[in-house]
Structure formats: C-alpha cells, structure tokens
Amino acid sequence: MSQRTHSNSPKSGRRLVALALGLGLASAALGTAVPAAAQPAAPATTAVAGYAHYAGSAQESAANKAFFDAVLQSVAKRQAAQPDLQSVTVYYSTAQAPSFRSQISSAASIWNSSVSNVKLQATSGSADFAYYEGNDSRGSYASTNGHGSGYIFLDYAQNRQYDSIRVTAHETGHVLGLPDHYSGPCSELMSGGGPGTSCTNRYPNAAERSRVNQLWANGLAQAVAKLAATR
C-alpha cells in the first residue's frame, strides 16, 4: 500500500480526507432498522499514476475524526428515534463501488467478527456512508463533506499494488473511529501502507479492537444524549 494523502471535498471544494490503506468494518448480528441518513456526495477523481508518500498530519487527524463524527451522528439519530434497538448497526452502500463488493464484504466480515459493540451492514436504501471507486493519484481514502455525509474512495491502482482487502478494511477503520498510525507494524491494521506492499494482514489487533468497542459504547451514548439535549 502507499501511504495516504488528502483530497478536496466533492461539493465544498476542499475535501476533509484521510488517505489510508487496509482492512476494515465492524461486527456480528445485523439490525433490522433501515437508516435515514444523508446520501454522500460523489467524489471527484483524476486518472493519475503513482502515489504521494504521506507521513500524517493534524489535518489528516481532523479529517479522520470528522468522518467518524459524521457516521456517529447519523447512527445516533436512528438510535434516538428507536431507543429499543438492541444492536448498533452502521449501514453502507456499495452501489458506486461494484468492482470492490467482494473486498468490502470481506472487510465487513472481518470487523464484524472482531468487535461486538457495532455492526456493519450493506443496504440498498439510505446509508450512513458509501464506497466509491475510481482513479486518484492520492490513492484510497476516507472523507466527509462536513455536512453529515461520508464516503470511502477505493483507488484502482493502489488496490492492485497492495492487498485490496487490507486497503478496504483499513479505510473502514476510519468509519469506526480509528486514526492512521503509519509507523506501526504490519500486525496493526491502521499502519496502512507504512509496512510496505508485502504486508497482507487484514485484521485489527487487540488494541484496535478494544478502541472500537470503547468508541461505540461510550461515544455513541454521548452522541445520543447530546442529540436529545438539543431537541
């Protein structure tokens, strides 16, 4: 994998972006509620070869958090409307990434078997976030437009160069709240392209699993409470 870069938000002219590589998505049983989340805007792409090596930055960290917060708020609205729901489900769409449906499904299964406080489920209706595919010199990344919509962009060339399921699962890790850590070892999913193209680990390690479970237990509860306080 190549390390990440940033891009501009498709509608605002600047994209809050965290270019990442890897594996990811969340846990076990699926909820029955259909989300009423905003549809993400389609990303702008450019057909360029090669990747810029990116060591991480405050901008990237802010982009990661913005994307997670957007998904968290979308799920919180559903939870607040249906407080009796027993499981937390994040819904995603693959309609704009048909070439990667197998990798996305595998990444979702990996996360769904790795964590217990959140689940990922594909939907053909309204989704909390969406996957897109195409060519972009910046590689793959997770992004939010800052208005409650988010998406993951999967770059063709990067997914040929690196393990495609690791790339997908890594990007999905941002949906679940994990930041990049390029200096980490191959055993750390969020190390992305740091360990090089030979790294094919597709699974989050114990610390990453624990962090996701914590975020979706405490973070979601806080988001629901904050939403209720504004009503």
How are the SSEs ordered, and which strands pair?
Elements: E1 16-19, H1 58-81, E2 89-96, H2 101-114, E3 119-122, E4 129-134, E5 141-144, E6 150-155, H3 156-161, H4 164-175, H5 206-229
Parallel strand pairs: 2-3, 2-4, 4-6
Antiparallel strand pairs: 1-5, 5-6
Helix pairs in contact: 1-5, 2-4
EC number: 3.4.24.77
Subcellular location: Secreted
Main location: secreted
Strand content: 5-15%
Largest sheet: 6 strands, mixed
The residue-averaged pLDDT reads: 76
Distance between the termini: 45 Å
Structural class category = alpha/beta
How many strand segments?
Answer: 6
Strand order of the largest sheet: 1-5-6-4-2-3
- Using the alpha-carbon principal axes, give the shape: globular
- The Cα radius of gyration reads 16 Å
Low-confidence stretches: 1-42, 44-56
Kindly state the percentage of residues in helix: 25-40%
- Total helix count? 5
Order of helices and strands: EHEHEEEEHHH
Structure characterization notes:
The protein is 35% helix and 14% strand. Helix 1 crosses helix 5 and helix 2 (101-114) crosses helix 4. The longest helix has 24 residues, at 58-81. It starts with 15 loop residues before the first strand and ends with a helix. Residues 1-42 and 44-56 have low confidence and may be disordered. The chain is globular, with a radius of gyration of 16 Å. Strand 5 (141-144) and strand 6 (150-155) form a beta hairpin. With 231 residues, it is α/β, with parallel strands linked by helices.
